[in-house]
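Working notes for the structural subgroup meeting. M.R. asked for a predicted model of this chain before we commit to crystallization trials. I am recording the input and output together here so anyone reviewing the notebook later can reproduce the run.

Input as submitted:
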Amino acid sequence: MNAKVLATTLLVALAASSSAQAGVLFYNTGSANGWSANNINNNCSVTTTSVIALEGTTSMRSECIFNGNYNGRYHAMKIRNPFGGNGSTRWIGFGFYLSSNHTFAAESTWLMQTIAKYGASFTPNIWLKINDRKLTLTRQFGPLSSRTKSEVDVLTNLQKGRWYEVVMKVHMDDDASGKIEVWIDGTKEVTMNGPNYFDGRTETLRIDLGLYCTGWYQKDTLPVPAAGTRLVFFDEFRLGDANSSFAEVDPGQGGGDADLISAATYSAKSGGWTNHGRVHDGSTTAAGNSTADPAWIEYDFGTNRTIKTARINEDDAGNWHVGQWKIKYWNGSSFVDAFSYTNSTNAGWNSVNFTDRVTSKIRLYLKPPAGGRVEIREFECVGQ
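Returned structure, recorded in token form:
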């Protein structure tokens, strides 16, 4: 092969290889890092966690905690900027996981929004939200000063303790050519035709991913029937342009690991407990305690699950905290150690990775510090 032919062949090969992901504008593998900016208010946080993941080993943890004395907004979101503008087409893919302790309530909790600043104010044009057990798609359009809102339910029976894989194709336009398509777990659920951008505007949108508890901000006009903590995990976010495809932004099939501990899987406990439900309420703001040595709590999964890692959250202060802890799992005839007693030495999370165990139920064992009692804020055990 002569030099000219070889050079041409290499250029064609390089062009082909670069175009395989040419449509992907941004990819986040489940991390609070690497985004354009933050949209995080008081009483809210966005962190990276290794407790649960759709793919890989981490996900993005978004949490908001209600405060009746706080009158501001509740955002726990990360920003990708720019997203696109009037006349553009974008593919979006991400996974979200509702905590096993999620409270379904008649209040609006957004998971994603596309939004721009018009003059002094930000206004969204497309968003996905949870309201009770519904996942709802909303678009706004028309004149900015007298905009019209249109909604359609994507799902009507959301379940907690599982991943949902979302793919969206959005053509943004202020006329009838606008179109939004939504797939959940590989199945197309919704096609929303019509304008989804404000008349004659040219501003470039950004996209925010995470939690926005709008119902809490509007507490003066909307009831807050289940104030407390909202926690959602996000993973495998991809943004593609018009040249992208479902396959390129698909957050993945087959699911991943999940926290198996909740009020639903709690089944028994030792004596001496006060507020034992706080150990599995999905929040680290309050603690349960026990005078027993050791104290234990049992969780029954109802079927065999593979457990892989566990962690406890405590303050490691005073003489009320956790001195040592371990997990026992049911082997079909008795409870045996998944790992032996280990010291709890950190204020916050203390984690143990152990050999995978297949079991239908486990017990968390806790020993107090010398002269004290057991106090623990939260327990999580991750598996499939």
